[in-house]
């Protein structure tokens, strides 16, 4: 069997999954794969799956699980994923999780599912405080990463703004969707003895070090 390593990161929006996934990508040499990146790639390049997804989006409908699953499966055939991948934002529900089990079964299945814990209040604080430069896309935060001049990008002087999906009402809805659709995965992966829980309120490097330690322990067992 050509064994590969697959990690599924879970946590509410703002828990730091993307940040930790990127650090793991750099340290482990396997790609971070997010559904957002996959959708953008397929839509931009007008692939068969991208055109199919757009047909639903143009009608204001949700893209079916089947299409999302096919996009992920296609992404895993790319050369950089020959050793596995770090999944960020997928699977989002039990249907996708069960499909992912079938996809990864020939390679040893899912290796580990870290769940990064933060409170809803902390998620709100992290996300609603985010500001983005309109011109270059640089990201700031009103508490954690302030620009030198309020509302002005340090890099190019562009205007900093709050994205619609970072506004309080939208963030609350994102949390609601997470609890409704994604939180059942916690029980699913717990039953499979794959779930490990981490405190996401700590500094980024501390969370990363614990993640690396947990991954090392699981590799040793495997």
Describe this protein's structure.
This protein has helices at residues 17-28, 35-44, 48-57, 65-75, 94-104, 120-128, 168-182, 184-191, 204-221, and strands at 5-9, 32-34, 84-88, 113-117, 130-133, 139-141, 160-161, 195-199. It is globular. The mean pLDDT is 91. The protein is of the alpha/beta class. It has a single domain, classed as P-loop containing nucleotide triphosphate hydrolases (Rossmann fold, 3-Layer(aba) Sandwich).
User: In the CATH scheme, what's the topology name?
Assistant: Rossmann fold
In round numbers, the mean pLDDT is: 91
| Percentage beta strand | 5-15%
| Text of the CATH class | Alpha Beta
Task: Tell me the number of strands.
Answer: 8
How would the global form be characterised? globular
Summarize the structure.
The protein is of the alpha/beta class.
Sequence-ordered SSE layout with sheet pairings:
Elements: E1 5-9, H1 17-28, E2 32-34, H2 35-44, H3 48-57, H4 65-75, E3 84-88, H5 94-104, E4 113-117, H6 120-128, E5 130-133, E6 139-141, E7 160-161, H7 168-182, H8 184-191, E8 195-199, H9 204-221
Parallel strand pairs: 1-3, 2-3, 4-8
Antiparallel strand pairs: 5-6, 5-7
Helix pairs in contact: 1-9, 2-3, 2-4, 4-5, 6-7
């Amino acid at each position: 069997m050509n064994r590969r390593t697959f990690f599924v990161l879970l946590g509410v929006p703002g828990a730091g999954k993307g940040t930790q996934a990127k650090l793991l990508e750099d340290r482990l040499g396997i790609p971070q794969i997010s559904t957002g990146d996959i959708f953008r790639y397929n839509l931009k390049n007008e692939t068969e799956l991208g055109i199919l997804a757009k047909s639903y989006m143009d009608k204001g409908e949700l893209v079916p699980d089947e299409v999302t699953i096919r996009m992920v499966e296609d992404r895993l055939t790319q050369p950089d994923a020959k050793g596995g991948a770090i999944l960020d934002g997928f699977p989002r529900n039990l249907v996708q999780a069960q499909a992912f089990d079938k996809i990864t079964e020939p390679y040893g299945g899912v290796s580990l599912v870290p769940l990064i814990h933060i409170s809803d209040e902390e998620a709100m604080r992290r996300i609603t405080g985010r500001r983005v430069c309109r011109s270059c896309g640089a990201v700031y935060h009103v508490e954690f990463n302030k620009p030198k001049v309020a509302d002005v990008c340090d890099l190019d002087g562009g205007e900093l703004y709050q994205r619609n999906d970072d506004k309080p009402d939208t963030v609350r809805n994102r949390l609601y969707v997470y609890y409704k659709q994604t939180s059942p995965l916690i029980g699913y992966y717990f039953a499979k003895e794959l779930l490990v829980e981490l405190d996401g309120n700590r500094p980024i490097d501390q969370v990363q070090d614990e993640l690396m330690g947990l991954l090392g322990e699981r590799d040793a067992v495997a």
